[in-house]
Amino acid sequence: xxxxxxxxxxxxxxxPKFIRKDHWRGYEQESWRKKDKKTVTVMYxxxxxxxxxxxxxxxxxxxxxxxxxxxxxxxxxRHGREYGNxxxxxxxxxxxxxxxxxLKEIEKDKGLSREEISKKYIFLCGGGQCGPCRxxxxxxxxxxxxxxxxxxxxxxxxxxxxxxxxxxxDAALRFNLSFRVSMAVAFILGDLLHSAExxxxxxxxxxxxxxxxxVRAEExxxxxxxxxxxYWTLCRALSKIGKIFAAIPQKKESLPLIYVTxxxxxxxAHNDGNYHLRKFITNEGCEVIxxxxxQRTLYDNWRRxxxxxxxxxxxxxxxxxxxxxxxxxxxxxxxxxxLHLYRRFEKAMxxxxxxxxxxxxxxxxxxxxxxxxxxxxxxxxEGNLEVxxxxxFAEAGSIDGFxxxxxxxxxxxxGVSDGVQAKVMSMYPELLFLSIETSGDxxxxxxxxxxMLLLKARKHHARRMxxxxxxxxxxxxxxxxxxxxxxxxxxEKFA
Length: 495
Ligand code: SF4
What we know:
The protein is of the alpha/beta class and 495 residues long.
């Protein structure tokens, strides 16, 4: 049969089968008014357990009913994927899944109907800003997921870190100065304890003693933060805590230093959200220099400051110019408050006495070192931060490994860690760089790759410190919390 004689398939129409007449509209929701303050419970999780824990103090001081949802767990991803849209970035699955898990637990434990739950609970979440990444879609995604899970008309309270956003005057919870400052205090306390944990878990002679001290410190800080005079009570508590930490006996050895950074959630979750990455690295006998929430918040302010300055340069005088000037003042004030609190609390705790690494990087300097590879005004996700950090540490030659952690499906971080960082690595081959992608269910694969990096980092450290005759491969480190069989096999294969 010749080609001409064959029956050709009928052309398939590519016209859409269904055409919407209206624009898509988001889920509508009723506001939470002051008169209902006492009958509604605020559910929230603030990236990781510790920061959520400290934020309790604000809810207690202000008479709110609240449910601290704490850390995200692996099971959350399953709930999030079941009810969320396809191809979301991973933090959305974790956070919406955690919400659905808690709602289902409330239904089971308290015997409330789904309608009652939707009336009596509200979810405090972030989202809305951050243009080019998916964060702007988060509020509607939460509503889609909970509605599809059967909790119809469930409400959310969307917190935007943009200080310009105002809440309605009769709102039951207003994102006023008191709330914003308390949020800043919660993340600063979380960061300081986290840096203490990274130092003490790595170096303490008795790790259990260090962990007990950290738990005790959390309790002391929460009690201090619940006081109306929290600024002074926290300073006193931090000073005592610093002395307790400094009294914990430490081993004298120097350990390989690993800097961990990346996308906000994957970097700072410190739980199943990033496979307990820092704990894993410490258990493997290395020390982590932790990226901090404070640094990331300062980056947000820095970004808005740059935007405002650019606006001031180009806007016409009068109406056009005013919002930029206002934004510039707001960002400068916010930065000053955060830096003041951070430095005051840091001074009170005195992390240098126990080896805590709490130095914040200068964002102006960072933007300059990386400007030729990543324009400082390309915003979205972490912007230029990770590229500049990599160059900063490569030039300083002060670390033995650099890990960039990004969630599966993250758009801005993929462009950075899979794209621009390739160029940085070619320029600085001494920088041991590893990019990992967290999906919530690939921990063996990811932690095996981290193990491989740590293996090289030990050699790098021995070389950097001039330790002759030390073959770090022959000094196996015990990891108590992770079944490392797969990782060990991979390590042996490549050693
Ligand atoms: S930075 Fe990445 S992971 Fe984070 S919200 Fe944006 S797209 Fe998602």
